[in-house]
Amino acid sequence: MSYKTIESKFIATPEKGEVSSILMRPDDAKWLLVLGHGAGTNMRHSTLQTIAERLADIGIATFRYQFPYMERGGGGRESEAVALQTVRSAAAAAHEAAGDVFILVGGHSYSGRMSSMSAAKEPIEHVKGLVFFAFPLHPSGREGTERAEHLTDVTIPMLFLSGTRDKLANLELLEPVCEKLGDKATLHLLDTADHGFKVLKRRKTEEDVFVEMARVISEWVETLDG
Predict the structure, then answer these.
(1) What is the CATH number of the domain that holds 112?
(2) Is the residue at 95 inside a domain?
(3) 226, part of any domain
(4) If both were cysteines, with which of 14, 125, 187, 190 could 163 make a disulfide (CB 3.0 to 4.6 Å apart)?
């Protein structure tokens, strides 16, 4: 499927100024995913690029963006307040750039958690659902569910795409978290995938893991109120 790619900037917060974005929009897209990066990567990382390409293949647009600390080249992350506002600003910028589509928000690891925390504090305008690519339930080697406590305050549907070898999301902890959230949460397990979506040769399916994630998202959005 053909698509257009447009690079632009938007104001993350008044204090931090502009950050970069990439809109990848297939012809006739009905849904757009506002897609954030992991804590140590950026919007051009191969993981986000591949996610965006596989979604474009099936007609779903993406709006990738930078957090201010990564726009400056990395280093220390800014405050939680800045991160949460950046998510909201990205969603608003995506809506302005492609206002005739339904909006989802999410991202890989860190940005997924920032998206859910922002939505838990106050609903994000125009957003129909949250998509987590490897939700970081806990730090590696320090298992717990404190990072999931805010999810009960989220009012829109959530899709968790989690690898069975993800060291930041022990399934014995993640599965009960999702069960507690009831109909709001959908958990899809990616066989043998780790936190960065690397898979083993003994994977039970021949389907590419990024193709699988795109397919699951496409099926999931059909259940949402568009």
Answers:
(1) 3.40.50.1820
(2) yes
(3) no
(4) 190
Domain that holds residue 214: 3-221
101/14 Cα distance (integer angstroms)? 27
pLDDT digits (tens, 9 = 90+) for 106-117: 999 999 999 999
Asked whether residue 79 is assigned to any structural domain, the reply reads yes
**Domain total of the chain:** 1
pLDDT at 142: 94
Tokens at 56, concatenated: 């474009």
